[in-house]
Amino acid sequence: MRRVALGAVVVLAIAAGTYALGAASGDDDRAQMRRVIVGASTDDDTTYDKWVTVECPDGMSVIGGGAVIPHGNDTPGVALYWTAPYNDHGTDGWWAAAQDTKRGSRRWLLQVQAICSDGVQSVADPHGSLAPEVFSPAGRTPGAGG
């Protein structure tokens, strides 16, 4: 019986401490990390080389992203050849590029999404990986349209 009472006291003490820490830290919406997913797409046409960018809202950093060619099986030969984060003058985002290698006549489009969050600080990688703005295939400049 003594163990049960002691266990109940320990559980109550932990719960009270957790509540107190939450109240002291200002546990409200401002203390929450926010995540936003933003997207964009190219025109749905027969252009053989396409690329598209999407930017995070002001004050948010890109933490992930990707690209897709919807219904790609309808356009054999369309290949995604680039998908990467970028930073353009302090604005984070994601961009992707694809090409219809068969130069067919079917319409297709490329879609991209960026996962953005606030409260994230970007730092240089001490192991020497490339910074996001370095990812520019074929001399293209991210954010310049496409």
3D structure, described in words:
The chain contains one helix and six strands, in the order H-E-E-E-E-E-E. Helix content is 16%, strand content 34%. The longest helix has 23 residues, at 2-24. Mean pLDDT is 74; it is low at 1-25 and 142-146. The chain has 146 residues and is an alpha+beta fold. The chain starts with a helix and ends in a 29-residue tail after the last strand. It has a three-stranded antiparallel β-sheet with strand order 1-6-3, with no helix packed on it. It has a three-stranded antiparallel β-sheet with strand order 2-5-4, with no helix packed on it. It has one helix at residues 2-24, and strands at 35-41, 49-55, 61-68, 78-88, 91-100, 111-117. It folds into two domains: 1-32; 33-139, no CATH class.
Short description:
Helices cover 16% and strands 34% of the residues.
Distance between the termini: 73 Å
Summarize the amount of helix as a percent range.
Answer: 10-25%
Q: What's the total helix number?
A: 1
Low-confidence stretches: 1-25, 142-146
Radius of gyration: 23 Å
What number is the mean pLDDT?
A: 74
Total strands: the figure is: 6
What key attributes describe this structure?
about 150 residues, alpha+beta, 2 domains, 3-stranded antiparallel beta sheet, 1 helix, 6 strands, about 35% strand, elongated, disordered N terminus, disordered C terminus
What is the element layout, followed by pairings?
Layout: H1 2-24, E1 35-41, E2 49-55, E3 61-68, E4 78-88, E5 91-100, E6 111-117
Antiparallel strand pairs: 1-6, 2-5, 3-6, 4-5
